[in-house]
Amino acid sequence: MKQQPPATLDRRSLLKSAGILAAAGAVLPAHASAPTPQRGSETAPKADRLIRVAHLTDTHVQPERKAAEGLEATLAHVLAQADRPDVIITGGDLIMDSFGATRARTREQWDLFNRVFASCRVPVRHTIGNHDIWGWDKKKAGCRGDEAEWGKRWAVDELGLQRAHYTFAERGVVFIVLDSVQPHGDDGYRGGLDDAQFEWLAGELARARGPVVVVSHIPILHASLILSDSDARPDGKHVAPGELFMDCRRVTNLLARHPHVKAALSGHIHVVERLDYRGVAYINSGAVCGNWWKSQDPHKARLTDPANTGNDIAPPRCEPGYGLIDVFTDGRIGFEYVETGWALASS
Fold it and tell me: Disulfide engineering: 85 pairs with which of 54, 58, 64, 267, CB 3.0-4.6 Å?
């Protein structure tokens, strides 16, 4: 079953199809229609707003850990907002993993993802992440590399896209969706753009009229990963190739040369962050799955244990949630991270 964007879903049909209508009170916490802004959010009269975006990144759908139910509950949460978003943008890593998964396992995950989004009546646009790429780890996936669906093709077809990077406009705002995952070695990946896509991005920015929001799975620029995923090493390299754009200098310089670029949305790290740099709000919208649908209570206990200095413990990942991004007529960007209250599995 292939999904053709934009897909749509009303709340009643979602709740019926998901079988969670009776449990809606437990799924939707009290703040569902009145989210609490986090630090860095901007507010302004609704009349001054061009668009509101729900940014749902790192859904990691899988048969285990009630992941599909968690995504269903997240969509219900979004649609319960009193100030409903105009568009949903997914941020990549839509399924748990196909990078090193068999064909059967990959098929099962995409079927679950498509079932959840099957009847969405809010426009949906998709971004591809590293876990959505099939078989780049050929040994684990049992691939040869010449299969018709190999690599990004499977995800592109499932999502009804022509290719992994594209541009669309909504309510006077131009969105440029990037393909931020590039091959690295025989079975790995790195973050960034190849030269051809970089030139394409430069052309799209030159043609764009009105505010621009750039979307990628891997962050173009992100600070929290230094605590979450990277350590200083003797060779002086502080960031792993897959955690950030390796060409972040040329990309941030390019974006800064275009004052109409207002924001760059990303995921991948499962940490909430807003970093304003040279006129662009670099926003990481946490993760719908939080800590990959697992509780991080044991991890938090280690961090708060007086007997443990905590020097070797990375900070916890975000709680399950999604970003609400507002683009205002004067170019300001509002950002809130909304926690869904979804209960994570204990292990």
Answer: 54
Provide the pLDDT for residue 226: 79
Angle between helices 248-256 and 195-207 (to 10 degrees): 10
Q: For residues 93 and 131, is the Cβ–Cβ distance under 8 A? A: yes
CB–CB of 58/93 below 8 Å?
yes
Provide the residue type at 284 as one letter. Answer: N
Are 319 and 339 in contact by the 8 Å Cβ rule? The answer is yes
Please, where are the H alpha helices in 220-289?
225-228, 248-256
Q: What is the pLDDT of residues 218-234, one digit of tens each?
A: 999 998 887 788 765 55
pLDDT at 294: 95
pLDDT digits (tens, 9 = 90+) for 269-290: 999 999 999 999 999 999 999 9
Nearest of 2, 216, 1, 242 to residue 127 by alpha carbon: 216
Please, are residues 268 and 218 in contact by the beta-carbon 8 Å criterion?
Answer: yes
Which pLDDT belongs to residue 206?
98
Q: How many CB atoms lie within 10 A of CB 342?
A: 21
Residue 177's nearest CA partner among 251, 109, 262, 264 is 264
Out of 1.25.40.10, 3.90.940.10, 3.60.21.10, 3.40.50.300, which CATH number does the structure's domain 41-339 have? 3.60.21.10
Which amino acid type is present at position 137?
A: D
